């Protein structure tokens, strides 16, 4: 469906209504990652939604790091996130923003709340706060510090800020309603003491604002109109609104929640992704098996395919699990249209064409793409070539009628027809060489004797081809719901998620492939040149066809 004919999602309906009623004149959204990990496919949905809305309604979208928790945050994550958002194809409005830029303003608003008798310094421990909070069915109990005079709270907050109070000894809490049916409104914590240096503010602060106290106010400072987050924040919305109503903020943002994207056969919890990295299950955050944007980029997924996938998803008010096959469909769709073709032999078997002279070299032209004009490449054809070992059978059988076997013919892709005459085995009984003859005058033509080959095989010149390492990647987990299975999610890691093949033969033009360049290796799948290794290393992005069944867990070969 075209952009215009697609029905509006619920957020677009809200926006169009706001614009029509003139509640909003310019739509401002934001993408607010916490720099405590790499972005993953779930974030891509949020990025496409937030930046997409800004684009559609000619508004603006900010990139703002939600760096209010210094314990887990690092600059490495900041730069990785910036790179990934750009790679996905989006530009933010103005400079990159940081929650930490607003620490002073947030502190001033905390002081304001105390002065308005709407906040107090509480000396209950975290454990006691939990006990006093009550339950879903029982109201909470007022903290004994709730009625403390404002002057006292102001002085204590100042000491907390200066680092004069031990961690955990005090918090600043809003004074709302300990009997509220919404637990989030039972005097939530606004500031905690953390004697931890911050990646940007260093040792300036000894107290850090809670997510709830920070997020909406940051939105208000930036003039965000529609603050879109995931469903688990729905119960925090009344608190979000309470701050906006009770503080002299410069604008009134509204929060809307949509369903998280979950993909089967993978995990998107940052904690679990970090565990995969820390335990060495994968090589890093950008391991091509990771559902991170950095991993998918290295795997060969394209930004356009990821955006198309995200746009195909419903923006709903329920969480859902999307089939990995849906993402893979968009990857194949994009690569099929755009990836140049190449020939690579993964399991090489030498074929000697006896009726060609030793020094024979013929440059055969081949289109880079079968349907589109992406130019031409040339394939040197020589007396010795490699074909895939699976394309040769010792004896002919109907099941393998498309393969080469003694006395039978195949067409070399983009080349001639050959007929096998003999083969050699080593001492272990492995076939190590096939001898064949070229059927003359068969370039783009059927053989004159009308004995047509049934199959077409890919090949590479043995003397002029190059050798490369090919990494065959597959899904990281063999269980459709690794984090909802009976065991630990790590038990479901697919042992065959990476198979490395050394000594593959590639057509010579591939030796100058750019890092990250995409190809369809004919009959094998989609691959890209690794963007890290300097040698000739290609990563399998995806097989040509889906070999994973939807009905039964695991892979069908
Ligand atoms: P954390 O547990 O560390 O808070 P998070 O997944 O919420 O993890 P953030 O960095 O806070 O990570 O997320 C940035 C934005 O991306 C948020 O607005 C969040 O709602 C959104 N987001 C995160 N995961 C998903 C997901 N699976 N689907 C859609 N949006 C997501
Ligand atoms: Mg979060």
Provide the descriptors you would attach to this structure in a database record.
557 residues; alpha/beta; Rossmann fold; Ribosomal Protein L25, Chain P; seven-stranded mixed β-sheet; 12 helices; elongated; binds adenosine-5'-triphosphate; binds magnesium ion
Written account of the structure:
The protein has 557 residues and is of the alpha/beta class. The chain has three domains: 11-258, HUPs (Rossmann fold, 3-Layer(aba) Sandwich), CATH 3.40.50; 270-339 and 468-542, Ribosomal Protein L25, Chain P (Beta Barrel), CATH 2.40.240.10; 344-457, Ribosomal Protein L25, Chain P. Helix content is 24%, strand content 24%. The protein contains twelve helices and 27 strands. A seven-stranded mixed β-sheet has the order 12-25-26-27-23-24-13, with helices on one face. The chain has a seven-stranded mixed β-sheet with strand order 21-18-19-20-14-17-22, with no helix packed on it. It has a four-stranded antiparallel β-sheet with strand order 4-5-6-7. β18 (409-412) and β19 (417-425) form a beta hairpin. The longest helix is centred in the first third of the chain and has 16 residues, at 41-56. The model has no long low-confidence stretch (mean pLDDT 96). Adenosine-5'-triphosphate binds at residues 32-34, 36, 42-43, 45-46, 66, 229-230, 260-261, 268, 270.
């Amino acid at each position: 469906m075209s952009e215009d004919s697609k029905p509006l999602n619920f957020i677009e309906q809200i926006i169009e209504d706001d614009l029509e009623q003139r509640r909003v004149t310019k739509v401002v959204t934001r993408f607010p990652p916490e720099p405590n990990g790499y972005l993953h496919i779930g974030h891509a949905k949020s990025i496409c939604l937030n930046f997409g809305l800004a684009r559609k309604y000619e508004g603006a979208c900010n990139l703002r790091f939600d760096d209010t928790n210094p314990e887990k945050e690092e600059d490495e994550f900041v730069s990785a996130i910036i790179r990934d958002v750009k790679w996905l194809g989006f530009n933010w409005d103005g400079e990159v923003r940081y929650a930490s830029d607003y620490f002073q303003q947030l502190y001033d608003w905390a002081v304001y709340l105390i002065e308005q008798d709407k906040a107090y310094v509480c000396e209950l421990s975290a454990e006691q706060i939990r006990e006093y909070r009550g339950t879903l069915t029982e109201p909470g109990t007022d903290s004994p510090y709730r009625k403390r005079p404002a002057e006292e709270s102001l002085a204590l907050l100042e000491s907390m800020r200066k680092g004069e109070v031990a961690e955990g000894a005090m918090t600043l809490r809003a004074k709302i309603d300990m009997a509220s049916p919404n637990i989030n409104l039972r005097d939530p914590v606004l500031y905690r003491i953390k004697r931890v240096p911050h990646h940007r503010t260093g040792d300036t602060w000894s107290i850090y604002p809670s997510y709830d106290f920070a997020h909406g106010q940051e939105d208000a400072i930036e003039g965000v109109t529609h603050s879109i987050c995931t469903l688990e924040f729905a119960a925090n919305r009344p608190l979000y609104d309470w701050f906006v109503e009770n503080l002299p903020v410069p604008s009134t943002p509204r929060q809307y929640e949509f369903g998280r994207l979950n993909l089967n056969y993978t995990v998107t919890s940052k904690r679990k992704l970090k565990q995969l990295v820390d335990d060495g299950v994968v090589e890093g955050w950008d391991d091509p098996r990771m559902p991170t944007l950095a991993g998918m980029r290295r795997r060969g997924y394209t930004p356009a395919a990821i955006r198309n996938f995200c746009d195909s998803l419903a923006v709903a008010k329920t969480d859902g699990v999307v089939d990995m096959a849906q993402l893979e469909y968009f990857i194949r769709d994009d690569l099929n249209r755009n990836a140049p073709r190449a020939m690579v032999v993964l399991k090489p078997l030498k074929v000697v064409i006896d009726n060609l002279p030793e020094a024979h070299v013929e440059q055969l032209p081949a289109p880079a793409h079968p349907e589109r004009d992406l130019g031409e490449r040339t394939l040197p054809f020589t007396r010795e070539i490699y074909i895939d070992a699976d394309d040769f059978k010792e004896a002919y059988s109907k099941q393998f009628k498309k393969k080469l076997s003694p006395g039978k013919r195949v067409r070399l892709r983009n080349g001639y027809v050959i007929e096998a005459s003999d083969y050699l085995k080593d001492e272990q009984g492995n076939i190590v060489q096939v001898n064949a003859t070229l059927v003359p005058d068969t370039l783009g033509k059927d053989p004159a004797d009308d004995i047509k080959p049934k199959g077409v095989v890919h090949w590479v010149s043995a003397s002029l081809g190059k050798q490369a390492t090919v990494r065959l990647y597959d899904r990281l987990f063999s269980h459709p719901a690794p984090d909802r299975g009976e065991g630990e999610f790590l038990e479901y890691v697919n042992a065959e998620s990476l198979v490395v093949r050394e000594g593959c033969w590639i057509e010579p033009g591939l030796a100058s492939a750019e890092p990250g360049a995409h190809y369809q290796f004919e009959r094998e799948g989609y691959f890209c040149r690794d963007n890290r290794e300097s040698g000739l290393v290609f990563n399998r992005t995806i097989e040509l066809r889906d070999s994973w069944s939807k009905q039964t867990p695991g892979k069908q070969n």
